[in-house]
């Protein structure tokens, strides 16, 4: 019997509960950095050392962080469902939490890529990228992160997964970052759709809204969905 399909679409709120600072809140990472300085191709051209320092520190913070109960519960869905995690997050907490099919639409902090060839991508773990570190073709390595003005990654793959899903669980995102937020428009009208966030101004049509944190809402929801599958 084919497993039902679930897409879990996650944003910064999931990682925040593991102690990783978000970019957009009042105490977030942008508070001391202008977006155009550390997250744009223009900023990279102006001051690559500043950009490298910024992401090196993020990488160190992520190495110290641990998956939380929401990450672990999402991975447990794989015992009964065909699960695809589509994440806007650049950390590796879903991987460390046990999920095996993850689409990173905004890149991955544990990878570097050539500044001249965006297909030349290298796993670096939690190591710093230093100015002067070059790819085999001789170009400076940069973080494998989608900056403002750059195209998101794996858009078609994520859209296909969402359009095929029987259930969609959206967690910890304001749905204000585009074009990634447009992906949810691909959901089937008959799919069960749930959105978990402690604070949401506008809830997309067709979604059941749970006003709670990821750690508060996701484990019991996963338990219920696993129970549903067991009773089929």
Descriptive notes:
The protein has 232 residues and is an alpha/beta fold. 31% of the residues lie in helices and 19% in strands. It is built from eight helices and nine strands. The chain has helices at residues 12-16, 35-38, 41-46, 48-64, 69-76, 93-97, 155-164, 214-230; strands at 5-10, 82-87, 102-104, 107-114, 121-123, 141-145, 167-171, 192-196, 208-210. It has a six-stranded parallel sheet, sandwiched between helices. It has a three-stranded antiparallel sheet with strand order 5-4-6, with helices on one face. Strand 4 (107-114) and strand 5 form a beta hairpin. Helix 5 (69-76) packs parallel to helix 8. The longest helix has 17 residues, at 48-64. The radius of gyration is 18 Å and the shape is elongated. The model is unreliable at 26-30 (pLDDT under 50).
Short description:
This protein is α/β, with parallel strands linked by helices and 232 residues long. It contains eight helices and nine strands.
Tags for this entry?
19% strand, 232 residues, elongated, 6-stranded parallel sheet, 3-stranded antiparallel sheet, 8 helices, alpha/beta
Per DSSP E runs of 2 or more residues, the count of β-strands stands at: 9
Shape: elongated
Helix percentage? 25-40%
Strand fraction equals 15-25%
Strand order of the largest sheet: 3-2-1-7-8-9
Count of alpha and pi helical runs: 8
Order of helices and strands: EHHHHHEHEEEEHEEEH
Residue-averaged pLDDT, rounded?
Answer: 92
Rounded to the nearest angstrom, the distance between the terminal CA atoms is: 11 Å
Rg to the nearest angstrom? 18 Å
Structural class designation: alpha/beta
Unreliable stretches: 26-30
Largest sheet: 6 strands, parallel
What's the multimeric state? single chain
């Amino acid at each position: 019997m084919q497993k039902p399909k679930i897409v879990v679409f996650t944003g910064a709120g999931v990682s925040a509960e593991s102690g990783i600072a978000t970019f957009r809140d009042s105490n977030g990472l942008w508070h001391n950095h202008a977006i155009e300085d550390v997250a744009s191709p223009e900023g990279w051209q102006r001051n690559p050392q500043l950009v490298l320092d910024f992401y090196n520190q993020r990488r160190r913070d992520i190495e110290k962080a641990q998956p939380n109960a929401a990450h672990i519960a999402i991975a447990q869905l794989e015992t009964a469902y065909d699960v695809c995690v589509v994440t806007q997050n650049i950390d590796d907490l879903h991987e460390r939490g046990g999920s095996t099919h993850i689409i990173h639409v905004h890149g991955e902090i544990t990878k570097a890529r050539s500044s001249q060839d965006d297909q030349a991508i290298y796993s670096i773990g939690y190591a710093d990228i230093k100015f002067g570190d070059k790819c085999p073709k001789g170009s400076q390595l940069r973080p494998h992160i989608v900056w403002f003005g750059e195209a998101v990654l794996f858009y078609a793959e994520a859209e296909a997964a969402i359009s095929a899903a029987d259930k969609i669980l959206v967690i910890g995102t304001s749905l204000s970052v585009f074009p990634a937020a447009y992906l949810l428009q691909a959901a089937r009208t008959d799919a069960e759709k749930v959105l978990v966030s402690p604070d949401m101004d506008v809830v997309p049509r067709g979604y059941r809204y749970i006003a709670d944190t990821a750690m508060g809402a996701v484990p019991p929801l996963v338990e219920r969905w696993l129970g549903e599958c067991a009773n089929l």
